[in-house]
Design brief:
mainly beta; eight-stranded mixed sheet; 310 residues; 1 helix
């Protein structure tokens, strides 16, 4: 039952600022040609709304963890330090890499004990939208926010469908009850009552400003580990150009206005701003666009706005 327990508030090592953002870019340092990143897992207190805080597990004190961006063919090294009250590991979701770098606890590596460190190092062989997440006590740790985006640009940028703007959407669920944060799960008594895009619930989610005629690439990441979210964009269809990191051939691309983003899945879609106005991107399960079962300013949870000007 421990995996279903709430985070003990006394374990919080850092309280983030109310306006702190997740998914901030982490720039690597270069050591002998290797791109080096440092990740630290710890317990934080995090605002998903200005008046709603949760306790969570975070990489580098942010939920989601920092965005790592590299190029196909790069040699990368990620130094992971564990300051959680339990062991953890990191899995590089969808990547081709050496087995000992893959991350499943007690299968390909010993778990990283509290206070311990582990070094992941590999050469990227793919490009596209990927992500990293815990692979130890996953039902608990991933539900508490221990994940982040990993974007790998192709060597030849002409191989990638481009747009005027780009935005990453990492989807998550939360269970806040009687002042405590529990891991949200797809089971009776553990169902979520809050939902976030990049660690924030609407109306605290981002608003992206565009102009009529411009395009945006939305990178949907199913960083959640229990729920499917049918993500819908108002204002016209989009083109699905990539799935699970793989760019679709021109013949395989298709028009849609909703994609079901399941756990672990990624979709890249390109949307064209056809008319001025505030066009929303949201999950089409109504409960997932509420905050503790209530709408705020017309929506909630998994909702954000594309603000298109003439």
């Amino acid at each position: 039952m421990r995996n279903m327990a709430a985070i003990a508030p006394l374990l919080v090592a850092h309280t983030a600022a109310q306006d702190a953002q997740g998914d901030t870019a982490l720039e690597p340092r270069i050591e002998n040609g290797v791109k080096v990143f440092d990740l630290e897992a710890s317990v934080v207190r995090w605002n998903i709304l200005p008046d709603v805080q949760v306790e969570g597990y975070a990489f580098n004190r942010q939920i989601p963890g920092p965005r790592l961006r590299v190029t196909e063919g790069d040699r990368v090294r990620i130094n992971v330090t564990n300051k959680l009250p339990e062991s953890t590991t990191v899995h590089w979701h969808g990547l081709i890499l050496p087995n000992e770098m893959d991350g499943p606890a007690n299968i390909t590596q010993k778990p990283i004990a509290p206070g311990g460190k582990y070094v992941y190092e590999f050469t990227t062989e793919q490009s596209g939208t990927y992500f990293y997440h815990t692979h130890d006590h996953v039902d608990r740790q991933q539900a508490f926010g221990l994940y982040g985006a990993l974007i790998i640009d192709p060597k030849n940028r002409d191989e990638e469908p481009r747009a005027d703007h780009e935005y990453i959407l990492q989807l998550q669920e939360w269970l806040k009850r009687e002042g405590l944060t529990y891991p949200a799960m797809l089971m009776e008594g553990a169902l979520p009552n809050y939902f976030t895009i990049n660690g924030k619930a609407y109306p605290a989610t981002d608003m992206v400003k565009m102009k009529v005629g411009e395009t945006i690439k939305l990178r949907f990441i199913g960083s959640n580990n229990n729920f499917v979210h049918p993500m819908h964009v108002h204002g016209g269809p989009f083109t699905v150009v990539a799935r699970d990191g793989n760019v679709l051939s021109t013949a395989a691309r298709f028009e849609a206005d909703t994609v079901n983003v399941g756990p672990g899945q990624r979709y890249d879609v390109i949307w064209t701003a056809l008319r001025p106005g505030k066009w929303i991107v949201h999950c089409h399960i109504p409960h997932h666009t509420t905050n503790n079962n209530v709408e705020q300013e017309g929506a909630g949870g998994l909702t954000m706005v594309l603000d298109v000007q003439a």
